[in-house]
Structures are given as structure tokens and as C-alpha cells.
Amino acid sequence: MMATYENLLVELCDDVLWVRINRPKRRNALSRATLLELGRVCAEQATRQSLKAAVLTGAGAEAFAAGGDLKELGTIRGAEEIGAFFDMASDALDQVRRFPVPVVAALNGWALGGGAELALACDYRVAVPAASIGYVQAKLNICCGFGGGADFMRVMGSSAGMMLALTGQTLDARGALSVGLIDAVAGDGESMESAVARFLQPITQRPPQVLRAYKAMAIAQRFGPGGAQLREQEREWFVRTWTHPDHWAVVDAVAGKKTV
After folding, report:
1. Other C-beta atoms within 10 Å of 30: how many?
2. Tens of pLDDT along 14-62?
3. Rg for the chain (alpha carbons), in Å?
4. 122 lies in a domain?
5. By three-state DSSP, how is residue 21 classified?
């Protein structure tokens, strides 16, 4: 029997693990509890030897994950506390990065900020045409805070990745496909589930031990020499930008415009 979670819906379908962030009223924002549950489900399912792939997606049609939960994070202003949050969030996404079989992010809607980091923590990204993705953290005068900076630079290359991150540009599905940020887009009228199944079809033909072998090589390359130094730099700059008055000036201005 599968475990139950407060913020996730988890099911096993034909040796593929489906994990759905189930906070549609909050646009599937990544709260502390949600991040901890994502790490937990990955840790619990990693030893299931029959698994061939995992799929992460969001509930509803609006958002995959619209970033960190700013309502919760807006109370964190001290360096020590935000550093501890970085450690928790990046550790949770590391469980995704180190999951022993291929992981696909199924983008059913927005993947912004921390949500984009979660998508990039996965091995592949498949999107519906209406989805969008963006490292928008710079618009809040911060850098990425879930350990996703290295992922972005690895996928995009340092020059293109830096430009997209600094502009905070959000790309639609077709635009993201054209620059290699996502790997496939569902056809017109095709369901997300069908698109994911089509994408996974050549992968799931292989036996679990072969999938685990190649994923182990990918993990070794991803966390190779220099990885720890990159993570420490990202942590340092996330703390420095989060606690800087420029960040809180933007947050306070945005909060002042909201009527809810």
C-alpha cells in the first residue's frame, strides 16, 4: 500500500511512479511541508526495484508549481533561518536529482521560480502547450534558492542560462522547447498523460537494472568534482540576496498591491 501525504497525490501505474503536488488553490506553491514530502516520497520509493521511471506534476490546469510559498517564506528575514531553509529545500530536491531511475517533470501549467528549479531537478521535462517556465527569481532581487542554479547552467549553458536568469524571462512551452529547456510538448488536443507515456515509451522498454545503471552514471556526472563548491556558492548568494533590503523592497511593494 502506498503511503499517504498531506500535499501530494502518489500512485503507481505500470512501474511508473506518479507524484502530483496537490495544492491547486495555492498554485501548487512549494511550502516547507510540500518540499519535505517530496523528499520523503523519493526516499521511500527509491528502493522499489521494479520502478522504471517517476513523473512529477501538479494538480489542476494552472500550475506545475508557481514557486516557493511566498506567504510562508515572507516571514523569513534572518540569514540563519533562510540558510536553513536553503539546506532543507536543496536536500529535498537532491532526492529528486538522485532518484535511481529517470524522472520526468510533466508541466501542466506554470513552472516559475522554485517550481522551475523543481522541473530542472528532474532529468526531463514534458509540457502541455499552455505551460510556461521561468527562473524569475531576479525579479524579486534574489537568486535561486533550491540548489537549482547549477541545474539551469548545466541545461542551458552558462551564457544563455545567465541571460535568462538575469532577465527573469518566462518562456512558453514552444519557446522553452526551442532552447532545450524542455524536451517535448504535447500535441494539440493530446493529454499530458498521453504525452508523458509517449515520451517514456522507449525508456520503459528497458529493464530496471539498465535504467538504474545509466541513471547512476548521470548522477555521478551531475554531482561530480566542483558540485559541492557550486552548491556552497549558491547558498551564500541566496542568503545574501534574500536578506538584502533590495529584495524586501520588492516584496513589500508586491504585497502592497495585492488585495487578497
Report:
1. 28
2. 999 999 999 999 999 999 999 999 999 999 999 999 999 999 999 999 9
3. 18
4. yes
5. strand
State the residue for C-alpha cell 504535447.
186
Alpha carbons 144 and 194: distance in angstroms, whole number: 32
- At 33, the amino acid letter reads A
Give the CA dihedral 160, 166, 170, 175, nearest 10 degrees. Answer: -10
**Which segments of the chain have a pLDDT < 70?**
1, 257-260
Region at 4 (left for phi over 0; alpha for psi -120 to 50; beta for the rest): beta
Q: Which three cell numbers stand for residue 93?
A: 530536491
Give the number of domains in the chain.
Answer: 1
Q: Record the pTM.
A: 0.95
Structural domain for 83, as ranges: 8-191
Rounded Cα–Cα distance for residues 135 and 142 (Å):
11
Q: Which residues pair with 106 in a beta bridge?
A: 126
Which CATH number goes with the domain that contains 122?
A: 3.90.226.10
Is residue 241 assigned to a domain? no
